[in-house]
Automatic annotation (TrEMBL):
This is Purine nucleoside phosphorylase. SUPFAM superfamilies: Purine and uridine phosphorylases (SSF53167). The purine nucleoside phosphorylases catalyze the phosphorolytic breakdown of the N-glycosidic bond in the beta-(deoxy)ribonucleoside molecules, with the formation of the corresponding free purine bases and pentose-1-phosphate. Belongs to the PNP/MTAP phosphorylase family. The keyword Transferase applies. It comes from the Bacteria. Gene3D superfamilies: Nucleoside phosphorylase domain (3.40.50.1580).
């Protein structure tokens, strides 16, 4: 696997004139507009990068973008790979591992999620403080790749406390509607039943989604500090549950997108 990662990394270095990203950013469903704030220097289609999986979801455009955000060098994944698309976990986290080999020092992740905490509202942001993995597997199953990280990585602080407090400070200063809480990952692609929403809330989750956790596990395995934020696109508490359609999720994400972009940009500026 390390050889496939190395080949992808070498190809990217070649194609980007050895651009050196300091930070990696993963953009979630409906959150691609952050790239409008980037001074783009290079852009590569996933399809052109050796060994990269190819995105199958229409709302994800599938590009690796290199440039400046908040004055810093970033590599941004516009579109990610979900377990429900049929990729295995190694494929889901392949780009995260490549970004680490490219030299990123921190990882910033975003996603769209359903709100389980009754204090939340649609289009608010939730800074992720911890997670629960309810996917049936994870990217570290199998022989450990010692070049990437240890067999039994610690998970006591998957989301960097310093980044979390910086983000909450930025949110307060800019009066952004930002909450914090626990994210639970489920396989999808169907949304949850009412009973499942109640269960997820009871086990301690504040938001539910179909991504992020595998990427965070792979990043933590490699020693990368992680910051992650959910955009609450629909409310999943009794009395507020509506039929969810992708269009509503995209609309709620679009509404929150400027706040998320501001938060991530200001956070990157502070590093
Ligand atoms: N459940 C799971 N994933 C989601 C949801 C949800 O309610 N909303 C956005 N992504």
């Amino acid at each position: 696997m390390i050889q496939l990662l190395q080949e992808a990394t070498d190809f990217i270095r070649q194609q980007t004139n050895h651009f050196q990203p300091d930070f990696g950013v993963v953009l979630g469903t409906g959150l691609g507009a952050l790239v409008n704030d980037i001074e783009v220097q290079h852009s590569l289609n996933y399809a052109d990068i050796p060994h990269f999986p190819v995105s199958t979801v229409e709302s994800h455009s599938g590009k690796l973008i290199f440039g400046k955000l908040g004055g810093r060098n970033v590599v941004v994944m516009q579109g990610r790979f979900h377990f429900y698309e049929g990729y295995n976990m190694e494929q889901v986290v392949f780009p995260i591992r490549v970004m680490k080999l490219l030299g990123i020092q921190k990882l910033f992740v975003s996603n769209a999620a359903g709100g389980l905490n009754p204090e939340f509202n649609t289009s608010e942001l939730m800074v992720i403080t911890d997670h629960i993995n309810l996917l049936p597997t994870n990217p570290l199953i199998g022989k450990n790749v010692d070049e990437l990280g240890p067999r039994f990585p610690d998970m006591s602080e998957p989301y960097n406390e310093h980044l979390i407090s910086q983000a909450l400070d930025i949110a307060a200063r800019h009066q952004l509607p930002v909450k914090s809480g626990v994210y639970v990952s489920v396989p999808g692609p169907m949304l949850e039943t009412k009973a499942e929403y109640r269960y997820l809330s009871n086990i301690g989750a504040d938001a539910v989604g179909m991504s992020t956790v595998p990427e965070v596990i792979a990043a933590v395995h490699m020693g990368l500090p992680v910051f992650a934020v959910s955009v609450i696109t629909d409310m999943c508490v009794p009395g507020k549950i509506k039929k969810v359609v992708l269009l509503d999720i995209l609309e709620a994400a679009a509404k929150a997108e400027p706040n998320m972009t501001l938060l991530i940009k200001e956070l990157i500026k502070r590093q």
